[in-house]
C-alpha cells in the first residue's frame, strides 16, 4: 500500500512569531521546564476556550424554547417556540455534534501533515466567527431554522480541529510517566471551559440571548491570537530536546511507541521514524481493547454531553426548594456539575495511576454514577444544598471515566505489542475511539430533546441505562486487568479475600 506523504504546507521546525518579538523567551534564557509549563497553559486555555464557546446553546435553551409559564406574552424564539421547540433544539445539537464527530475522522490526519499551530489557530478563528454569527441571529431578528443549523454544522467542523491538535502538542512535550495524573489535571480544561462559558453566557443573558454567544466567541478569538504567537508545537522547534526516555503521541493523543528515544546523549536524542504501513479499518477494530473502549466512550459521552447541553434547561424547569429558578440562576447553578467534572477527572487519573488499571477505575466510577444520578433526580429538588451536593457528586462520577478514556486510555492503547511502531495504525485506532464517542455525544442531546417532552424521569432512565451498558462493555477489560495484576503478585488484598 502506498504511504501517504506529508503535505509540507509550511516549513518544518518553525518557531512561533511571538518568540521573535520577545527574544528573552528563547533558550537558553528560558529552560525546557518553562516551555513545558507554557505549552500546558496555552493548550489548556485553548481547549477551555473551545468548550466555553460550545456552552451558550445550553444556556439559552430555556429562552429559545417554550417557557413553562409564558410571561409578557412571550413563548420562546421562532422557530424554537411551541410544543415542538425541544425537538428543534435537540436537532440543533445533533447538527453540531454530528459534524464534530465526522470532522474528528479527518482532523487528525490533516494535523499530521501541516503545522499544528496554524491548524489549531484556524480552528479557533473559525469557531469564534461562527459562534458570533449564531448570536447575530438575535440582533438581526433571524427566525430561519436553516440558518441556525448551517452555522452549527460549520461550527462543529471547526471545533473538531481543537482536540487532535492540543493533544498532539502535549504528546510532543510529555512522555508516559504519570500520564493519568498529568492528563487528568490537564483534561479539566473541558470542565473549566464549560464553567467559563456558563458564567459568561448567563451573566449577559438578561441583555438578550445574542450576547451569550458574542462574548464567548470574542474570547476564543483573543485566545487564538496568543496561540498563534506563542505556542511551540515541539521542543526541537526552538532547539530543545527531551533528555530522558519519552514516548511521543500522534495527533489523536496515542503514544507512538515506535518513536522511543535511543540512549540519552548530552546533545539530545535522535528519533527514528517508523516505517510500517497503515492497517485497515476493520483490523484496527479487532485490536485488543479498541471496540470495548470505543463503545464505552459512546455511552459515556452520550451521558456527559446530555448534561452539557440540557442541564440548564432542566434546572429552569425544576422547582428547587419550592422556588422556580431564573434563566441566569439555572445557568450559573449548572457550573457545579462541571466543577465536579474537574474533581472527577483528576481523581480518576490519580486512581488509575496508583492501581495501574484504567478499566477497573472507569467501571467503578460508572457503577457509582448510576445511584448518584438516581438520587439527584429524586432528591435534587428538596433543597439547594442537596441539589448542589448531588450535582457535584454526579459530575465527578460521570466525567471521571469519560476524561480517563479520552486521554490516558487512548494513549495506553499505543503501548500494546499488536501495533508497536505503527503510528498510522495508532491514528486509526484513536480516530475510532474518539469519533465513536462523539457519535454518542451527538445522539444523547437529540434523544433528550425528544424524551424530555414526556417527562424528565424518562430522560434519567435513558442516562442510567446508558451508563449501565457502558459498564457492561468494560467487563472483559476489567477481568483481564485483575487477572494480570494477580499474576504479577499485585493487589494482594484480593488474593487474601479469595482465600
TrEMBL record:
Molecular-function GO terms, alphabetical: transmembrane transporter activity
Keyword terms: Membrane, Sugar transport, Transmembrane, Transmembrane helix, Transport
Compartment annotation: Membrane
Keyword Membrane appears in the UniProt entry: yes
Occurrences of domain Major facilitator superfamily (MFS) profile (ranges): 32-483
Pfam families the UniProt entry points to: MFS_1
Topological relation to the membrane, as annotated: Multi-pass membrane protein
TM segment ranges: 32-50, 94-111, 118-140, 146-174, 186-207, 213-233, 290-311, 331-350, 362-379, 391-413, 425-447, 459-478
One Gene Ontology term from the biological process aspect of the record: phosphate ion homeostasis
Keyword flag Transmembrane: yes
Organism superkingdom: Eukaryota
SUPFAM superfamilies documented for this protein: MFS general substrate transporter (SSF103473)
Database matches in Gene3D superfamilies: MFS general substrate transporter like domains (1.20.1250.20)
One Gene Ontology CC term in the entry: endoplasmic reticulum membrane
Family according to the record: Belongs to the major facilitator superfamily. Phosphate:H(+) symporter (TC 2.A.1.9) family. Belongs to the major facilitator superfamily. Organophosphate:Pi antiporter (OPA) (TC 2.A.1.4) family.
Protein name per Swiss-Prot or TrEMBL: Glycerol-3-phosphate transporter 5
Amino acid at each position: 500500500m502506498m504511504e501517504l506523504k506529508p503535505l509540507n504546507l509550511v516549513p518544518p521546525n518553525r518557531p512561533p512569531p511571538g518568540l521573535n518579538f520577545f527574544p528573552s523567551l528563547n533558550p537558553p534564557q528560558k529552560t525546557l521546564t518553562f516551555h513545558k509549563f507554557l505549552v500546558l497553559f496555552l493548550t489548556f486555555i485553548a481547549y477551555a476556550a473551545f468548550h466555553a464557546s460550545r456552552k451558550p446553546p445550553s444556556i439559552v435553551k430555556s429562552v429559545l424554547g417554550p417557557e413553562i409559564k409564558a410571561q409578557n406574552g412571550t413563548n420562546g424564539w421562532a422557530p424554537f417556540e411551541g410544543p415542538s421547540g425541544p425537538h428543534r433544539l435537540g436537532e440543533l445539537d445533533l447538527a453540531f455534534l454530528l459534524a464534530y464527530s465526522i470532522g474528528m475522522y479527518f482532523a487528525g490526519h490533516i494535523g499530521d501533515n501541516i503545522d499544528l499551530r496554524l491548524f489549531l489557530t484556524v480552528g479557533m478563528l473559525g469557531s469564534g466567527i461562527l459562534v458570533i454569527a449564531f448570536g447575530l441571529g438575535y440582533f438581526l431578528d433571524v427566525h430561519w431554522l436553516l440558518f441556525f443549523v448551517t452555522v452549527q454544522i460549520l461550527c462543529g467542523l471547526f471545533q473538531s480541529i481543537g482536540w487532535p491538535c492540543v493533544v498532539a502538542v502535549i504528546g510532543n512535550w510529555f512522555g508516559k510517566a504519570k500520564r493519568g495524573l498529568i492528563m487528568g489535571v490537564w483534561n479539566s480544561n473541558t470542565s473549566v471551559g464549560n464553567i467559563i462559558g456558563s458564567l459568561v453566557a448567563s451573566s449577559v443573558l438578561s441583555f438578550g440571548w445574542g450576547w451569550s454567544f458574542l462574548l464567548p466567541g470574542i474570547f476564543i478569538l483573543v485566545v487564538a491570537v496568543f496561540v498563534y504567537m506563542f505556542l511551540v508545537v515541539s521542543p526541537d522547534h526552538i532547539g530543545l530536546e527531551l533528555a530522558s526516555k519519552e514516548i511521543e503521541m500522534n495527533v489523536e493523543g496515542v503514544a507512538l511507541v515506535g518513536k522511543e528515544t535511543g540512549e540519552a546523549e548530552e546533545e539530545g536524542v535522535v528519533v527514528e521514524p517508523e516505517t510500517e504501513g497503515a492497517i485497515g479499518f476493520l483490523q484496527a477494530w479487532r485490536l485488543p481493547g479498541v471496540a470495548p473502549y470505543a463503545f464505552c466512550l459512546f455511552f459515556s459521552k452520550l451521558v456527559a454531553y446530555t448534561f452539557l447541553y440540557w442541564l440548564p434547561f432542566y434546572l429552569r424547569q425544576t422547582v428547587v426548594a419550592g422556588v422556580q429558578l431564573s434563566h441566569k440562576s439555572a445557568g450559573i447553578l449548572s457550573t457545579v456539575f462541571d466543577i465536579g467534572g474537574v474533581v472527577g477527572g483528576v481523581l480518576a487519573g490519580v486512581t488509575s495511576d496508583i492501581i495501574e488499571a484504567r478499566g477497573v477505575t472507569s467501571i467503578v466510577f460508572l457503577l457509582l454514577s448510576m445511584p448518584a444520578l438516581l438520587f439527584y433526580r429524586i432528591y435534587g429538588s428538596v433543597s439547594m444544598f442537596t441539589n448542589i451536593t448531588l450535582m457535584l457528586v454526579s459530575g465527578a462520577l460521570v466525567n471521571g471515566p469519560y476524561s480517563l478514556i479520552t486521554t490516558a486510555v487512548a494513549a495506553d492503547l499505543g503501548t500494546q505489542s499488536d501495533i508497536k511502531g505503527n503510528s498510522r495504525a495508532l491514528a486509526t485506532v484513536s480516530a475510532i475511539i474518539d469519533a465513536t464517542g462523539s457519535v454518542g455525544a451527538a445522539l444523547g442531546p437529540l434523544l433528550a430533546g425528544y424524551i424530555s417532552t414526556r417527562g424528565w424521569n424518562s430522560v434519567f432512565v435513558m442516562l442510567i441505562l446508558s451508563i449501565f451498558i457502558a459498564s457492561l462493555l468494560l467487563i472483559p477489560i476489567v477481568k483481564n486487568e485483575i487477572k494480570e495484576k494477580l499474576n504479577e503478585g499485585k493487589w494482594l488484598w484480593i488474593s487474601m479475600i479469595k482465600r
